[in-house]
Amino acid sequence: MKVVKNFHTHCSFCDGKNTPEEMILAAISSGFTTLGFSSHAMLPLCENGTLDENTIYDYIKEIRSLGEKYKDKIEILCGVEADYIENFTTPDKSYYKKFDLDYIIGSVHFVSTPDFSTYISCDTSIDALQEGIKRFFDGSVEKYLRAYFAAVRKMAASFEFDIIGHPDLPWKFNEKFPYFDPCSSWYKDELILTADAIAESGKITEINTGAISRGWLKEPYPLPDLRALLIERKVPLILSSDAHASSGIDCAFDRFAHLATVFDWRKQ
Ligand SMILES: [Zn+2]
Ligand SMILES: [Zn+2]
């Protein structure tokens, strides 16, 4: 079956390469019937490539107006990919309600340090990640990754949002720059705990092909080990491309469509 809806898309309002209109035109020519925009938001914080308290209004206005312009060709939705960083920001609908968005993807891209003085990015650069682990997690990758998965579990259990984004994002660098062993028992334990928490939350989780289009991985998130645990627990799975450029709008959708069990977060 061909998947013709994608709810995870970035554009020039955050860290995407193309304008929203270019993304829409690419989606139309790829045969999509629904395209959802999900620019990065970590309000009230703001980092490079994320919306802030002002640009979020421009973003929503632009997406809504393009939705109107292309309504006969494609359904356009406006959401955000909102961060969970313990003690700093949450993807909760109660906070984002004032923006009248269509949906929220909750993702962990940053892990709070044990003293909550700052947070370390999982996916900006391997050097920054390793420096952060050295400085704030006693050089222990295990401590860092346990904190990452604990954050995913807390996010799934504690906040109201629609889709869980890439729940094993730390895999991004691990194929090219291996820094943890996915066969270690502590890693497997974390995956089981995380799969249990996601299943318990009842939330939809993505099959996210974004790291394939950007050349980091050959498999989508979640990788086969976590994916198998989610399938075993009958967690609803939705395919998304996490496209940061129009060329990746339907990246690997043909190869991984069979993994999707939900095609629209509004209809489970
Ligand atoms: Zn993300
Ligand atoms: Zn994304």
What proportion of the residues is helical, as a percent range? Answer: 25-40%
Mean pLDDT: 97
Number of strands: 9
Low-confidence stretches: none
Instruction: State Rg.
Output: 17 Å
- Which superfamily, in CATH terms, is the homologous superfamily? Metal-dependent hydrolases
Total domains: 1
**Structure classification:** alpha/beta
Q: Rough shape?
A: globular
The largest beta-sheet arranges its strands as 1-2-3-4-7-8-9
Question: Can you describe what's shown?
Answer:
The structure is a single chain. The protein is an alpha/beta fold and 268 residues long. It has a single domain (5-259), classed as TIM Barrel. The protein contains 9 helices and 9 strands. The protein has helices spanning 20-29, 55-69, 93-96, 126-136, 141-158, 185-201, 210-213, 224-232, 253-256; strands at residues 5-6, 34-41, 75-83, 103-107, 110-112, 119-121, 163-164, 204-208, 237-240. Strands 1-2-3-4-7-8-9 form a 7-stranded parallel sheet. The protein has a two-stranded antiparallel ribbon with strand order 5-6. Helix 5 (141-158) runs parallel beside helix 6. It is globular. The structure holds zinc ion (2 copies). One zinc ion is lined by residues 81, 107, 109, 165-166.
